[in-house]
Amino acid sequence: MDLHEYQAKECFRTAGIPVPPGKIARTPEQAEAIAMEYGGNVVVKAQVHSGGRGKAGGVKLAVDPADARKHAQNILGLEIKGLTVEKVLVTPTEEIDTEAYLGVLIDRSSQAPIFIVSAAGGIDIEEVAETRPDEVRRFVVDPRHGLLPHQAFWLADFLYDDPELIKQTAKIIGQLYEAFTNTGASMAEINPLITTPEGKVKAIDAKMSIDENELFRRPDIASLRDTSAEPKAETLAREAGLSFVKLDGEVGCCVNGAGLAMATMDLVKYYGGEPANFLDIGGSSNPDKVASALQIIASDPNVKSILFNIFGGITRCDDVANGIIEALSRIEIRAPIVIRLTGTNEELALEILQNAGFSAYASMDDVVEEAVRLARA
Amino acid sequence: MDLHEYQAKECFRTAGIPVPPGKIARTPEQAEAIAMEYGGNVVVKAQVHSGGRGKAGGVKLAVDPADARKHAQNILGLEIKGLTVEKVLVTPTEEIDTEAYLGVLIDRSSQAPIFIVSAAGGIDIEEVAETRPDEVRRFVVDPRHGLLPHQAFWLADFLYDDPELIKQTAKIIGQLYEAFTNTGASMAEINPLITTPEGKVKAIDAKMSIDENELFRRPDIASLRDTSAEPKAETLAREAGLSFVKLDGEVGCCVNGAGLAMATMDLVKYYGGEPANFLDIGGSSNPDKVASALQIIASDPNVKSILFNIFGGITRCDDVANGIIEALSRIEIRAPIVIRLTGTNEELALEILQNAGFSAYASMDDVVEEAVRLARA
Amino acid sequence: MAIFSSSSTRLVVQGITGRDGSFHTRETMAYGTPVVAGVTPGKGGEIFIGPGDLTTPIYNSMDQAVSETDANTSLIFVPPAFAAGAIMEAAESGVDLVVAITEGVPVQDMVRAHAFARDRGVRVLGPNCPGLISPGKAKIGILPGHIVTEGPIGLVSRSGTLTYESVHQLTAMGLGQTTCVGIGGDPLIGTNFIDCLSAFESDQETEAIVMIGEIGGTDEQEAAEYISGDMSKPVVGFIAGQTAPPGRRMGHAGAIISGSSGTAAEKIKAFEDNGVGVANRPADIVGLVQEVLS
Amino acid sequence: MAIFSSSSTRLVVQGITGRDGSFHTRETMAYGTPVVAGVTPGKGGEIFIGPGDLTTPIYNSMDQAVSETDANTSLIFVPPAFAAGAIMEAAESGVDLVVAITEGVPVQDMVRAHAFARDRGVRVLGPNCPGLISPGKAKIGILPGHIVTEGPIGLVSRSGTLTYESVHQLTAMGLGQTTCVGIGGDPLIGTNFIDCLSAFESDQETEAIVMIGEIGGTDEQEAAEYISGDMSKPVVGFIAGQTAPPGRRMGHAGAIISGSSGTAAEKIKAFEDNGVGVANRPADIVGLVQEVLS
Q1: Which of D44, D63, D116 sits opposite A154 (nearest CB)?
Q2: Which candidate from A212, A213, A257 shows the least CB-CB separation from C162?
Q3: Catalytic residue among A101, A160, A177, A361
């Protein structure tokens, strides 16, 4: 779960990291009032789960409160990579001497937290890593010993020469690690970490992703989820316990298992169609879940056909078939539905489906090909 | 630094360990009032840094407040292994089903915390370990991973069969480890850990030793030191930055270095004397420190002679000689003083001492023999 | 022969009395794998009733279970909050292999659990994996016994249902399996592709291997290099997620393209660059296998 | 020859600008041991002025110091609060030996630091130790250079001044030393008696060993068994603290009799039971050494 900049900054503040003050505005008037409070020179920043805010016009410097109001007016409601800006962060402008990058995330290959630091901050770190690898230092934390003070110092020492800046930064690195572990984050990033002409080190942007699997035991962090910042269908899917990702195609997919769901999407493409979504209903044959899935897929106006691809391993296919039939009896679906069910009790399932008037297929290729044909028809 | 039972119980409470209530009385009247508050059935327990309180009559059950008063009267002022009882803990009597032992300390050979548990509690664990080793389980904590929940469970499972008691005890084991690490303890012990007829697990006695080296960064714990519970000379020595242990002999010893100080005491014994103390003045030739050392030794009425044994390695012997002379010019010492100084600038030092009228020896054996002779004279 | 399991597998199930745990324990017992113990704290002394007249004793801890029954493999069904703890308990109990089925284990918990298991040299499979099955020999996990059959193919996959799909097709064409291993869909997994490939390479009965990857991470790329550098047996690959958008988690916590890294295209290219045949769709896997076997 | 040090020792001093650090660094340089670097965070770039015209560069971190100067041994004088951290920094920097002089390091800090150093296979001597000196070759620590002389005796001790006392007597009787090692008086020390005994056993120039123990712990008992089981060279022992009362810390944090364990009597008995000669008093050490050498 991604946090907004202002939420991540609050986590950083709790850990002691120096972060400039800031307040959230939902209207231009609020932005103006906040700018007034901060003396006029402020930055107005779109709060949206997407990179490239700056390029999209989502970050603007204001010289006075009226200017802040004007910028907020432009940014609120702006669409950035498909997401509408509902909130802006208004924060005093900082004088900047240097910009660095400081991040920590869970590294898959070392199975441990890894720090990434670079004196080339304020820009895309992946790009820096590719074009100027010498300017990036990586450090894997041994999870058995945690981040040790000298390791934080070594990393800080890679960024600056001034002992005073190194000292402040080593402390911030320790605090960032603390924020990372205390929130169950999978990623925490300060970009840029700035130095000011007065010799202070500060975090003026903040990004954090929290591991979804942590949220059950961290209600305070779970409550930070901003459902207004994601497609409505995804909110509904999560509430129904479904894995769902909205896409732009016309073939709705309802599959059990994440791997099979991805392979089904790929096969839609293989047969010349475009998948409308990723959806994993899990191992369940629960009609409520099937009904929610169907409703979510059908509510997408782009969807022209819907396919089920179910491989009954542990789950019995006849149970799933009954679940589908019952779900369809509850809700009305405009788009044609084609179903493939195979595995345990397959024959029984196909009989149930055919009796209910549905096309029923035994092969994944057949059902996908038919779904694409129907969508293109 | 040893904590009193009531202080250790406070640390345990902070960590969440179930500990019965209790209050400190310094007078029989206070003990009576506290007993009243707890309904009459209480235990009155001497708060003194010494084992074997029970055998020495320092722990008594009272059936009513008057009884508590009477017991407090007897216990307050009692001498237990040379220490006078100044305070008693008054705590409600608990009904006891079983008594177990639960302790954790720093293990020298594994260089890690080690848990020791036994279902045979309420008695000396060393004795249990010797006579019934099968009833004792040891578990070394891997400091890199900390104490893990299943390890606490395994230990608890060694103590009890009842799942409910195991669950409570596993939690207490985790909390004891937390109290141990959070206070920088070198030892934390619950003996006995009891079970009640209602199926509750509680700590009814508590012992903790805090690593002296931790105290500089834990002022809250350092403030728990009870100087009334130790010989006055030791308080003075600590304040003067000296390592000092009072003994019962008649030869006062003033030595630089702990190993040499012990060897000097042993040599006193070898020549037929008894050392009056262990005292390490460290590498310093600071006259203030030497003066404090002399004053502390001389204040012991048993002391019949005082010996200095100084090996100047890094320290220059002439510096030390000057320090001794200056210290002696400030305070008056009744007992005869003999001095051995060797090492760096030895000749210079011997000259300084002889000029000041002191016997000066180059050999450790000679000075000790003479000090013993003087003490026996 | 088979990998990570054999007829001497002696299974202990952690969380045997839970809904999933009890169901799959019965399936496992029915398949003929000896389940010598179950563990549920607080239920020690009870008896688990399996299919037919099979039963298995329940213990309070892995410590007891292993010392009483000489179990050598653990299968974990405990809830996410306690799963990492259960893996560490298993790793310390003396078993050689820990198979963690539980989905949704916090990733920072797994950082600790993997470090602990590594320190003890204990193999972990998963978490969030379907486990493994060696047809006719041992079933450790939730892969259904009736879709597999004995034969010369080793199969390793990050996905459960995609494994069913592929095994189903292999079995239908008469291509039986030595062992099918689901390594799991989480970002931090114990046993990885290379571990399995290397085991299959050493397994005398395995003649060819099917490897099913997906988007996220670089395990498939490293496996491709390993195949070309260290393996003599043929491998057929498949990668799911060609149409997955970047930055979105596709069900599995590990199935996510980070920035421009971990894409299906990248992985397919790694296979091709290292001479590994890649199936365009699941249905092509069988054909490629037949090709490499002939 | 010598143990744990040689003419190729390249020393870095952590805490070189402190009061004790700077004093002993000068002594060390004057003895001829190459001090190739100093470390004091925040003072990187400055130059440490040694005796004569000797100087050494100061770095901000051990990382830099070791990579710039190829130092292979670290000597630590930083204050107790930071000493464990300095040991871990040294252990990670690539040096082979870390000698920690600092007294008063919290024992729970040392639990962590020793675990960290063990994981990296780095030898730690101390903390709270005087270090070591190999007469004519290397001085790493605070043992005074003028009381030692070259010769065939290896000496290992838990105590500083008692080492002086013994070395002084050995030197006076013409018995020079290969290496004198002070392993330190703390309860948790890195290099212990057995490590030193085993190194002396392998050292070609060492002909006999003096081992000076004291009350507390069981290191001397284990060493006694090691001597009788694994050593060919003669060892003379001495134990301080025969008159120490139980339960009281005798200066050294490690010199404490716990219950009935760690007494001098116990240790002397262990020596005698294993055929190791024990001196009754320091003055008897030389005689016993002369005896075993003849």
Answers
A1: D63
A2: A257
A3: A101
Indicate whether this complex's ipTM tops 0.95. Answer: no
A164-186 pLDDT tens trace: 999 999 999 999 999 999 999 99
Q: Give residues 148 to 167 of B whose Cβ lies within 8 Å of C.
A: 148-151, 153-154, 157, 163-164, 166-167
**Is the pLDDT reported for residue C232 higher than 90?**
yes
Q: A118 pairs with which residues across the strands?
A: A101, A136
Burial class (CB in 10 A: 0-12, 13-18, 19+), B245: buried
Chain position carrying tokens 């500089």: B216
Judge whether A21-92 and A231-376 match in fold.
no
Per CATH, the number for C144-293 is 3.40.50.261
In chain C, which among 29-48 make CB contacts under 8 A with chain B? Answer: 41-44
With an 8 Å Cβ cutoff, are C60 and B151 in contact?
A: no
End-to-end CA distance of chain C: 22
Distance CA A25, CA A33 (A): 9
Touching subunits for chain A (3+ Cβ pairs under 8 A)? B, C, D
pLDDT of residue B231: 81
CATH code of the domain occupying D11-125: 3.40.50.720
CATH 3.40.50.261 correct for B231-376: yes
Q: Is the pLDDT reported for residue A323 higher than 90? A: no
| Inter-residue contact B320 to B349 (CB < 8 Å) | yes
**pLDDT > 80? residue C43:** yes
pLDDT above 90 (res B13): yes
- Tokens 């002296």 correspond to what residue? B212
A267 close to A213: Cβ distance less than 8 angstroms: no
Q: Would you state the pLDDT for residue C149? A: 96
Bridge partners (DSSP) of residue D39 are: D14, D59
Give pLDDT, residue A269: 97
Third-level CATH fold of B21-92 = Dna Ligase; domain 1 (3.30.1490)
Enter the tokens of residue A362. Answer: 């035994």
Looking at the domain B98-222, which fold is it? D-amino Acid Aminotransferase; Chain A, domain 1 (3.30.470)
Sequence spans of domains, chain B:
21-92, 98-222, 231-376
- Tell me, what amino acid is at A236? L
Within chain D, which residue ranges are assigned CATH 3.40.50.261?
144-293
Q: What is the pLDDT, as a whole number, of residue D127?
A: 97
Which part of chain D is CATH 3.40.50.720? 11-125
- Over its C-alpha atoms, chain A yields an Rg (Å, rounded) of 25
Q: In chain D, which residues have pLDDT < 70?
A: 1
Asked if A163 and D62 come within 8 Å (Cβ–Cβ), the reply is no
Question: How much is the pTM?
Answer: 0.94
Residue C121 in contact with residue C97, Cβ under 8 Å?
no
pLDDT digit string, tens, across residues B305-335: 999 999 887 677 888 888 888 888 888 888 9
Task: Please give the pLDDT value at position B285.
Answer: 65
Q: Is any Cβ of chain D less than 8 angstroms from the Cβ of A146? A: no
Residue C8 tokens, joined: 């001497």
> How far apart, in whole angstroms, are the C-alpha atoms of residue A209 and residue A211?
7
Average pLDDT, integer, range C142-162: 94
DSSP string, chain C: --SS--TT--EEEETTTSHHHHHHHHHHHHHT--EEEEE-TT-TT-EEE-STT-EEEEES-HHHHHHHH---EEEE---HHHHHHHHHHHHHHT-SEEEE--S---HHHHHHHHHHHHHTT-EEE-SS--EEEETTTEEEESS-GGG--EEEEEEEES-SHHHHHHHHHHHHTT--EEEEEE--SSSS-SS-HHHHHHHHHH-TT--EEEEEEESSSSHHHHHHHHHHHH--S-EEEEEE-TTPPTT---SSTT---BTTBS-HHHHHHHHHHTT-EE-SSTHHHHHHHHHHH-
